[in-house]
Amino acid sequence: MIATRARGGRRRSIGCVGACLTASVLMAPASAAALSEKGFESLHIFSKVLHQIEEYYVEPVDEPQLIRGAIRGMLDSLDPHSAYMAPQYYRQLKTETGGRFGGVGIEVTFKKGWITVVAPIEGSPAARAGIKAGDRITKINGVSTKEMDIGEAVARMRGRPGSKVVLTIMRGEGRHLLDVALRREVVRVASVRSEILDGDVGYVRIVSFQEQTERDLAQALADLAGRGALKKGLVLDLRNNPGGLLDQAVGVADLFIEKGVLVSTETRKKVIDRREAHAEGTQPWYPMMVLVNGGSASASEIVAGALQDHNRAIVLGTQTFGKGSVQTVVELDDGSALKLTIARYYTPGGRSIQAFGITPDLVVEEPTKERTTEEATQPEAGPRRRVTEKELPGHLVSEDGHTRLPKRPRIKLPRITVSKMVEDYQREVALAYLKSLSN
């Protein structure tokens, strides 16, 4: 999810990979809206159905529970990112903005009736246990997740730190089931991590866009520059980054872009909001590579798209997730909340990312065998196929046909051979390219 500060101190949220639940939210009171004549007719039918259930269902019913179920049904009939959050799930959402929360550390979405893993959070119990993108969680402590609400699934995976939870995983098409026992932890997500590559190339990984990401990135870049680690450029790693706060994504892009539009959003009523870059605080120019993959979504796609459209960086990796819609979260009177998709966002060049994603300048797959750089730029089927936005039932289609990046001159990579023992092939290719620019 991505949230942006709106007028009057409220926040609007943009994007989320499934139930990532990592953003601050808009707390605005729900207001009654005028219904159309057809709306009143449908509401009358709904009232009749509710009355019939209360009077004649074989067992006593809980009226508030029925109403909540009806609300969930309404939201389920929209796109996969609009949802009703019961009070307990909404409270969990509000505790996670700062990057610290309890559980096993999995980003999930809903696909074909099952809770499906988008990506495990780096360093979490799930990541250490080998849970992979695309895994279906069929049971949580023996309870089937078939058609289970995402909020309920997330709540069941959470609990007291130190307690255990058993996830039953279905992997691939073989229908093989695997029970994975995990010990819950307080998951701490460090937003920014940096290091020096080969003595003169900076490397920064942004795990998610949290409240202090822009500040932490600026500090990391200052530290790298002070140690002479940006002489030949920077590798900015946005792989498996599910999103976060919009103002932080804008701030990150603004660090590298001096002027122009960074991102724009447009509603059904054609209300357009544009975020502009500022010259103050812009980093000095140096070569830059941005790493992305199918787990890069929402805020990370905004940053990659802005840097790509402004020709500030070369984007390397694989097609991104394609999360380009805007959600507003409205707190209701009983402490529950409504998350509703209200707009789409666009890159500076006017490209809609929704259901398509960002196409890298250099498509470089993560190899499963020893390959040269040129060989690695050809697609290769791998065992870790990821869920994408366009595969989610009910996803919004892109209204803009200009989603693909215009053709650019072919980028000549240095011919290198990378051993199977290299830990991160894509990063190695990016490093080789940056170093070749100064040779």
Short description:
The chain is built from ten helices and 23 strands. By secondary structure, the protein is an alpha+beta fold. The protein is globular.
Q: What would you call the quaternary organization? A: single chain
CATH class of the largest domain: Alpha Beta
Helix content: 10-25%
Count of alpha and pi helical runs:
10
Poorly predicted residue ranges: 1-32, 373-384
Strand content: 25-35%
- How many beta-strand segments? 23
What does this structure look like?
The chain has 439 residues and is α+β, with helices and mostly antiparallel strands. The protein has two domains: 89 residues, Pdz3 Domain (Roll), CATH 2.30.42.10; 232 residues, 2-enoyl-CoA Hydratase, Chain A, domain 1 (Alpha-Beta Complex), CATH 3.90.226.10. It contains ten helices and 23 strands. Strands 1, 2, 3, 15, 16, 19 and 20 form a seven-stranded antiparallel β-sheet that branches. Strands 5, 6, 7, 8, 9 and 10 form a six-stranded antiparallel β-sheet that branches. A six-stranded mixed β-sheet has the order 12-13-14-17-18-21, with helices on both faces. β12 and β13 form a beta hairpin. The longest helix is centred in the first third of the chain and has 20 residues.
